[in-house]
UniProtKB/TrEMBL annotation:
Name by which UniProt lists this protein: GNAT family N-acetyltransferase
Taxonomic lineage of the native organism: Bacteria, Bacillati, Actinomycetota, Actinomycetes, Kitasatosporales
UniProt xrefs under Pfam families: Acetyltransf_10
Organism: Streptomyces halstedii
Cross-referenced PROSITE patterns: GNAT
Record InterPro entries: Acyl_CoA_acyltransferase (IPR016181), GNAT_dom (IPR000182)
N-acetyltransferase domain: residues covered: 32-219
Top-level taxon: Bacteria
């Protein structure tokens, strides 16, 4: 994660796919509230989000202060959300929505302004976590729906993502499938005018993807990297 990875493109060409798919965020228990994370939340939110990837010393939670700062900037795609106990003020859950940072290191996109376009249209759900005492109350489901709605919204100065993907352990496949995500063990592929862009696979993890806009189609197909989930409708396809 870094400042460059979250920057909005300097050119806002009209490359949007279809209309935003409406998302209903489930109601939370009465004694918690879902809100934007503030810079003052970073220290308390870090150990919560670390629960999402406790064995990874280089997890996204390490960059939480920078991500929160970016989320407060209307020109950036990052969003950091926190779940707070209303009485005590203790943070009990959180999640981040990030642009696809891998677009900036993809060999077909490095140094190209198209990297910003792909990064903005392909959102990533990151560091979804709820403390143990509050699990089983629908908080994680509400956080995912909240991230979907925020990532897909076409706000002023932002594209609004076409798809949301999450990299997760295999045991979470059913959880995401129950929320309408489609799983791909071998990563994702996106046809673009410049060619076919692949991301993944990552050993020991799965990719689950959900369309945020109409016109997006997903189909498991063989690629040089395995049977990936090919996502059409994010960008115009290659010229025939």
């Amino acid at each position: 994660m870094g400042e460059r990875m979250y920057a909005a493109p300097t050119s806002r060409a009209a490359v949007q796919p279809g209309e935003v798919i409406p998302v209903d965020v489930p109601a939370l228990p009465d004694d918690v509230v879902l809100r934007d994370a503030a810079p003052s939340d970073a220290a308390a939110l870090e150990p919560v989000m670390r629960l999402a990837d406790p064995d990874n010393p280089d997890g996204s939670w390490r960059q939480l202060p920078a991500a929160i700062r970016q989320s407060l900037d209307a020109d950036n795609y990052t969003r950091v959300r926190a779940v707070e106990e209303t009485e005590s003020g203790v943070l009990v859950g959180g999640a981040m929505s990030l642009p696809a940072a891998w677009a900036f290191t993809h060999p077909m996109l490095m140094g190209s302004p198209n990297a910003h376009v792909i990064a903005g249209l392909v959102a990533s759900l990151d560091s979804l976590a709820v403390v143990e005492a509050w699990r089983g109350k629908g908080i994680a489901r509400a956080l995912v729906a909240d991230v979907e709605r925020g990532a897909g919204a076409h706000e002023v100065g932002k594209y609004g993502a076409a798809v949301l993907y999450v990299t997760h352990e295999p045991e979470l496949t059913d959880f995401y499938a129950g929320l309408g995500f489609t799983v791909s063990p071998d990563g994702i592929g996106i046809p673009t005018p410049a060619g076919f862009i692949c991301h993944g696979p990552i050993k020991g993890f799965r990719f689950s993807v959900k369309a945020l806009r109409t016109g997006v189609q997903m189909e498991p197909l063989p690629t040089p990297y395995g049977r990936q989930l090919v996502i059409r409708g994010v960008l115009p396809g290659p010229a025939r």
